[in-house]
């Protein structure tokens, strides 16, 4: 039986709420991209890490949400690389 390659992704969305650089739609974009990766390209949703600043704007969001700090982005990329195997 042939090995099935894993598909891994790190998606980062920053709206920079309550700042002079505030954007609109970046969080929606990464959520939509995750949906595309899962439904169209067959990614396992557990292999996609989302880093967003969503709760900073709304006070809501998953309790385990990871903020997109430089340190967290590097950690997510490092985790993705360590999980990858030849052919992924």
UniProtKB/TrEMBL annotation:
The record's Gene Ontology cellular component field reads: cytoplasm
**Where is the Peptidase C14 caspase domain positioned along the sequence?**
6-86
Q: Which InterPro entries match?
A: Metacaspase, Pept_C14_caspase
GO molecular-function terms, A-Z: cysteine-type endopeptidase activity
- Coiled coil location: none
Domain of life, per UniProt, equals: Eukaryota
Pfam families in alphabetical order: Peptidase_C14
Report TM segments. none
State the Gene Ontology BP annotations.
Answer: proteolysis
What protein family does this chain belong to? Answer: Belongs to the peptidase C14B family.
Protein name per the record: Peptidase C14 caspase domain-containing protein
Q: Name its species.
A: Gossypium raimondii
> What taxonomic lineage is listed for the species of origin?
Eukaryota, Viridiplantae, Streptophyta, Embryophyta, Tracheophyta
């Amino acid at each position: 039986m042939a090995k099935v390659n894993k598909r891994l992704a790190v998606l980062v969305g920053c709206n920079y709420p309550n700042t002079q650089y505030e954007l609109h739609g970046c969080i929606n974009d990464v959520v939509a991209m995750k949906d595309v990766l899962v439904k169209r390209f067959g990614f396992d949703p557990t292999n996609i890490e989302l880093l967003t600043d969503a709760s900073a704007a709304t006070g809501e969001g998953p309790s385990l949400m990871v903020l997109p700090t430089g340190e967290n982005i590097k950690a997510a990329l490092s985790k993705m690389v360590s999980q990858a195997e030849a052919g992924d």
